[in-house]
Amino acid sequence: MKSDSGEMMNPRISVVGVNYGNTPLTIRGMLSIPDTRRQEAFICLRNYVSKGVVLATCNRTEVYVLDDDEYSAAAAIRRFLYEWSGISEVELEPYLYSSHDVTAARHLCRAASGLYSMIIGEYEILGQVRQALEDAEEANLVNFELRSLFQHAIRTGRRVRDETEISKNALSVSSVAVDLAARATGDVGRCRVLLLGAGEAGKLVAKALSDRGVRQMTVSSRSLSSAQDLAADLGAQSARIEDLRSQMEMADIMITCTGAPHYVVYADLVEVVMSSRADRPLVIVDIAVPRDVEPQVGEIDGVLMYDIDDLDEVSEANRAARQREVDRAMLIVDDELEKFLARWQELEAKPVISALSRMADGVRQRQLEIALKKLPSLSPEEREVVEAMTKAVVSKILHGPIRCLKDNGGRDEDYVRIVSELFALDERGS
Asked: Which residues are catalytic?
């Protein structure tokens, strides 16, 4: 891996992905990985890389891989994304970004710190980074280096939140969705709200609705038991997904976040619903990726529809207000990255350091045994003094080479190779 100064470090990190900043929602939806298809995605990924972690959220899909050949790694990730999304290379390539080495590590640390989120400083991304690592672990797609990288990114994200106010009174996608609905209706607390989705996003939306004073809330989900559990926690009502039409007829606002891999609400259903509502408008906020609601629904008279990209306008003021904290967070990320790279350098040199120490101690013990046989009159105390002296000599001799290995071994492959050859470590089987 090369540092920003051009010094060599290994292994190399590569990341390729898309995010909300330059990629249409339709494309992001095709690249998304719903919970129901997670195992399928890992099986597909194994066709291209032996180890990798996928960070997939409503606003981004990124794949992180460690490989000595960064160009090969990036090409493999691209082929996975083409196959998984079903999007041709020509169509997808303009939206893909990639980075390598220190830049890739910094990218992950900034993402985990909420610096690349649509809503700066939001908490959800830190849990999503942690979940991405756990999912890859379960799929046996993680090695020591990837685990270290992601664990460090999580620690960095925690430190940013502890030492800055970037997450003070933090908004979330869910709370901004409720704000968007409130902007459209005026007093959201007096509205009848239908929440479609009872997963993690649904729970956050439900809490945001409750905090805004909504008392007439119905939760519906593909899993009735999940809807019932969430509704019970909030003192709300629950409904079967099969009763969606009647529930929509009664609602003033519908917020959807199911995580389904396909549309859940189609235009023909909404047309029927709106025909029975007289002049009552319906506000729909769809924060699912891929979309829950067919885009044509927004063209139906009486429907005011928003998707997750519409949240960006609402969150712009939040982004500007937090810019000072962003600058402080960037400094923390850089500081943590330096620590990470220093530890990684030592890890890169550790096998050679261990081999060198074992070789030197082996020589010491053999020569000490020969010397002690020639000095049979030494007392046990004197033997201990002689042995301590030999250990001290070896330690003093190795101090310089080991210090240099720790400082330079991770940066310079040739340095490690020269030390190995100089002391014939490979020939000794160390």
From this structure: 58
